[in-house]
Amino acid sequence: MGIFITFEGIDGCGKSTQVKLLDHALKEKKIETCVTMEPGGTEAGKIIRNILLGSEFSVDRYAQLFLFVADRAQHLEEVIRPALMSGKWVLCDRFVESTVAYQGYGLGLNKNFINLLHKEILGDTWPDLTFVLDCPVSVARLRLKTRRGETAELTSGKGDDPYETASLEFQERLRQGYLDLARKYPKRIALIDGSEDPKQVHLSIIKIIEKKKLWPSET
Ligand SMILES: Nc1ncnc2c1ncn2[C@@H]1O[C@H](COP(=O)(O)OP(=O)(O)OP(=O)(O)O)[C@@H](O)[C@H]1O
Ligand SMILES: [Mg+2]
Ligand 2 centroid vs 135 CA: distance in angstroms? Predict the structure, then answer.
């Protein structure tokens, strides 16, 4: 069986950046990886992603919950479990904690109910390790602004991600939600200071992977 690692945190905290850096580090160690993301890690998931994050629909919060969970169920069956079975390390950009943070802490849906749904669809496939990258909302916002500037041509004309453009107060609730989850599940969730520079954040991630003895340490 491979190792299942998920990356969590508010928009712009640096998840995708760290997924790339860890993927690179694993490849250097000749470890096979499967890099994936939610929502939209499968063909059906891409359609679900467009419904959730496109600008065409305003989706009710319960409908959001079920669509995110539907995307996850499909992703688990089609991508995550087969990759783990073949011995790959799965690096997933957002997973269960995103739903608990956004639809639970953010939109006020019942967190016990959200957990129950996940117990049912995940079964034994819980992540071995989850990184919550924490940084102040203002820092993450600034990064997103810079990122938008960098890719202005690519994104022009497209609607913004509705969660990204939500109020500062909403983003702060998400941040506190993630911190709460990291406190609740300290065995699985590692809280990382995401406000440092990307290389430093990467080193913190590697340190935890080594401490958990998930990969053979250098001798
Ligand atoms: N530690 C860091 N310090 C400074 N800038 C960073 C850091 N990590 C990432 N960035 C930059 O900040 C922007 C957002 O990073 P990234 O896309 O990795 O965040 P994300 O968490 O994946 O965001 P989203 O939730 O929107 O997908 C990018 O332009 C990236 O280059
Ligand atoms: Mg990202």
Answer: 14
Within 10 angstroms of residue 124's Cβ, the number of other Cβ atoms is 5
Residue type at 83? Answer: A
- 11 within ligand 1 shell (Cβ under 6 A): yes
Domain assignments of the chain as residue spans, ordered by start? 4-211
- Of residues 145, 52, 47, the one with CA closest to residue 99: 52
The per-residue b/e assignment along 128-155, b for 16 or more CB within 10 angstroms, e otherwise, is bbbbbbbbebeebbebbeeeeeeeeeee
Pocket test for ligand 1, best of 19, 35, 97, 143 (most atoms within 8 A of CB): 143
How far lies 138's CA from each of 85, 103, 169, 176, 202, in Å?
A: 40, 21, 11, 14, 21
Token pair recorded at residue 20? 């790339």
14 lines ligand 1 (CB under 6 A): yes
Tens-place pLDDT, residues 38-50: 999 999 999 999 9
pLDDT tens-digit map of 138-193: 999 999 988 888 664 444 444 467 776 678 899 999 999 999 999 999 999 999 99
CATH code given to domain 4-211: 3.40.50.300
Instruction: Answer left, alpha or beta for residue 9, where phi above 0 means left and psi between -120 and 50 means alpha.
Output: left
Q: What is the pLDDT of residue 153?
A: 45
Q: How far apart are CA 174 and CA 180, in angstroms?
A: 10
- d(Cα 131, Cα 18) in Å, to the nearest integer? 10
Distances (CA, A) of 112 to 54, 104, 115, 116, 151: 28, 9, 5, 6, 39
